[in-house]
Design a protein that fits this description.
The complex is a heterodimer of chains A (about 500) and B (about 180). Chain A is α+β, with helices and mostly antiparallel strands and about 500 residues long. Chain A has 3 domains: about 120 residues, no CATH class; about 160 residues, Jelly Rolls, CATH 2.60.120.1440; about 140 residues, Galactose-binding lectin (Jelly Rolls, Sandwich), CATH 2.60.120.430. Helix content of chain A is about 15%, strand content about 35%. Chain A has a 15-stranded mixed β-sheet that branches. In chain A, strands 16, 17, 18, 19, 20, 21, 22 and 23 form an 8-stranded antiparallel β-sheet that branches. Chain A is globular, with a radius of gyration of 31 Å. With about 180 residues, chain B is mainly alpha-helical. The longest helix of chain B is centred in the first third of the chain and has 23 residues. Classes of the chains: A alpha+beta (about 500), B mainly alpha (about 180). Chains A and B meet through helix 1 and helix 2 of A and helix 2, helix 3, helix 6, helix 7 and helix 9 of B.
Chain lengths: ~500, ~180
């Protein structure tokens, strides 16, 4: 097949295509974040797999030791001169010389020394990256068990099975709770002192508990810790995760945090989570079916024999299958269903806005004010002279998310006109000398001398040079700047919130 | 040995710097192409991201040739799979995206505006033609490489390119 000859129209096509935007500035960061999250999950899963393998080996060692009167030859290993252990197993008669079938294990603490049967659990096949068991199995026996079992020349303790160690290093040394049976996750014996979330206000009859504690009503805005179990009452409950993600649920669930990942184990009903652009992965588990959301917003339903997920923004993985925005999939024993269009859910009605950035002017914003003569007094930013604007910089830059709304509470004195200017990094303009694009909105004050609020969907603010181009998801805002024509401008707060469409 | 292949070999060896270099070198082109395929910003970004993710997960899947073409292939497949699963929705989007009025270039229209119109018009072409002409004219891929990306024959690629050219020439020929 001969190559086509050049055609003058090709150049126009090339210029048009190359004139189009490339990857947005946040593309690589998001990509790397997703890779990092996947790598973390993969490492956790692999570590868990190894733990399980080693734990199985430990159980085998114990079983073998019990079966073969292992105490008889243990003293001969590291301390041949030592007398027989003072505390032989109760269930064993006086040791009789058992042929030393075991080779010398040597002093090293490796768990797989002598038995062929123990040698099996070498970390062989790699586990698949994201499998659903890592949460549920999290308190599985720690891998140290087999080491202790094999290497120590001490008499065995009579515990039957490998007992799980407390899994978090900062577990509360809690008190009078009875130990939980090993390996079960259902009732953590103590709350893990990792603050994971805060209740937003109080929902009627919401209840919480940790482990085997009794259910109780929480305090308003109570801080929640890893392992908390929550039960909604008459209405849905809103919580804010420590990383800034927002969640609303109905029904009953347990919330845990391992590393940076938040896991909701749904007992029933519905959960909504929004962690868009936060880098705080959220997993949900219902009936053993797992969904993972690194960066997005979604609804998670505990259904009969499975989990149903609606992706509202970003991307969600359900049992390894991907959901993109506005799609719904269901995972059951029959597998993951094909995606279908999401049609909305009344559960999201009256969803509180998620605050992305808020400046109260009690202190200067992290990026600093422009310092053009404005002053901060009692949580109010005030300007009453040239250059007649109040402005501050975002630090870090603030990424526009879908549904972002700007809210400003302000008071004007003899002001006839307001000009809102937001400078954004724009990928098209990055190729030029000045990479900033100004988005501008002209407003007229509603009142004079009285406080009022401006509420402005940010995606309706146009490019100052191109009225058809608006701020959009992914744009990075560098600042907030409000000009005025008149005597005086006062700002009580400026906030960017995300509302669920 | 091509530099792309060297980078991928380094990636196989766990060199994260190689991954950065690959992303930096190809992200714009892959996103642009994915956008042309999907005509939807979010879907395009998802597809482009997925292409890089798949390379990162399994760099050995790339066995040589043009890495960019390989990334295009993955991004397009991801995008089309997603499209098929949302066909009903997409149909609405397509309908809305097709301009109703024929393009009438103003006598001295700004260059940027004309390029935008060209891009918009290309977006209305059938997917196969759209992808083929962009990969050929804008990305400089050979017919054989395009055939690999599109999963079709070189003859079909040639036909698609000629068809797209003809349509574009009919509309923009006098001003190009």
């Amino acid at each position: 097949m001969s190559e086509l000859p050049n055609d003058p129209i090709d150049e126009l096509i090339q210029r048009a295509h190359n004139n189009a935007r490339g990857a947005p500035p946040s593309f690589k960061g998001r990509l790397r974040a997703r890779m990092a999250a996947e790598a973390t999950v993969w490492k956790q899963t692999r570590a868990l797999y190894i733990k399980l393998v080693v734990a199985v080996a430990a159980v085998l060692v114990v079983a073998l030791a019990v079966g073969m009167n292992v105490e008889l030859f243990l003293p001969n290993r590291s301390n041949p001169a030592a007398p027989p252990p003072p505390q032989a197993r109760d269930d064993q008669p006086a040791p009789v010389n058992v042929p030393a079938v075991q080779p010398e294990p040597g002093p090293q603490p490796e768990p797989r020394q002598s038995d062929d049967s123990i040698d099996k659990p070498t970390p062989g096949p790699q586990p698949e990256p994201a499998q659903p068991d890592d949460i549920v199995d999290e308190p599985a026996p720690e891998p140290r068990q087999p080491d202790d079992t094999v290497e120590k020349p001490k008499p065995k303790q009579p515990e039957p099975d490998a007992e799980p160690e407390p899994r978090q290093p900062d577990d509360t040394v809690d008190t009078s709770k009875p130990k939980q049976p090993e390996g079960t996750k259902a009732e953590p014996e103590s709350e893990t002192r990792i603050a994971v979330a805060t209740l937003i206000g109080t929902a009627p009859r919401v209840q919480l508990c940790y482990g085997v504690q009794d259910w109780r009503e929480p305090e308003p805005n109570e801080v929640l810790y890893s392992g908390v179990q929550l039960k909604a009452g008459r209405s849905a409950v809103d919580i804010m995760l420590a990383g800034g993600a927002y969640a609303r649920f109905d029904g009953e669930l347990r919330l845990e945090r391992v590393s940076d990942t938040y896991t909701f184990v749904l007992s029933d009903d519905t959960l909504y989570v929004d962690n868009l652009s936060l880098g705080t992965p959220v997993h949900t588990v219902a009936h053993g079916f797992k969904a993972e959301m690194v960066d997005g917003a979604g609804l998670f339903y505990s259904i009969r024999n499975g989990q149903e997920v609606a992706c509202l923004a970003g991307e969600i993985s359900l049992q390894g299958e991907t959901l993109t925005a506005a799609t719904v999939r269901k995972a059951t024993e029959r597998g993951v269903s094909e995606p279908r269009a999401w049609k909305g859910d009344r559960f999201l009605r009256d969803l509180p806005a998620r605050v992305l950035v808020r400046e109260d002017f009690d202190v200067p914003p992290p990026g600093g004010m422009y310092d053009e003569g404005e002053r901060l007094e009692d949580g109010i930013a005030i300007m009453d002279k040239a250059p007649r604007y109040i402005a501050f910089r975002h630090n870090p830059t603030f990424e526009v998310l879908p549904g972002t709304v700007l809210r400003v509470r302000l008071r004007t004195t003899n002001v006839s006109r307001l000009e809102l200017e937001l400078f954004a990094l724009n990928e098209i303009e990055l190729l030029k000398k000045n990479p900033e694009v100004m988005f501008k909105q002209i407003l007229t004050p509603e009142t004079n001398g009285e406080w009022f609020e401006i509420v402005l969907p940010i995606e309706e603010i146009p490019d100052n040079k191109d009225a058809e181009h608006f701020l959009q998801h992914g744009d990075l805002l560098r600042n907030f700047k409000l000009h005025y024509v008149g005597d005086k401008l006062e700002l009580d707060f400026v906030e960017f919130v995300r509302v669920q469409e | 040995m091509s530099s792309d292949l060297e980078l991928v070999i380094r990636l196989v060896d766990g060199d994260e710097g190689a991954l950065d270099a690959i992303i930096d070198a190809h992200q714009d082109a892959v996103v642009r192409f994915a956008r042309a395929v999907t005509r939807d910003e979010n879907s395009a970004l998802d597809a482009a991201q997925e292409a890089f993710i798949r390379l990162w997960r399994n760099p050995k899947a790339f066995t040589g040739g043009s890495l960019r073409a390989w990334l295009f292939t993955v991004a397009r497949n991801v995008a089309l799979n997603e499209f098929r699963s949302r066909r009903r929705r997409t149909a609405r989007i397509e309908k809305a995206a097709v301009p109703n009025q024929p393009y009438a270039p103003r006598a001295r229209a700004a260059d940027a505006e004309q390029l935008r119109h060209v891009e918009e018009y290309i977006a209305t072409l059938p997917e196969q033609e759209r992808s083929a002409i962009l990969l050929f004219a804008a990305e400089g891929l050979s017919q054989a490489e395009i055939a690999d990306v599109l999963g079709t024959s070189a003859g079909a690629v040639k036909q698609a390119i000629l068809s797209a050219r003809q349509k574009l020439r009919a509309r923009f020929g006098e001003s190009s």
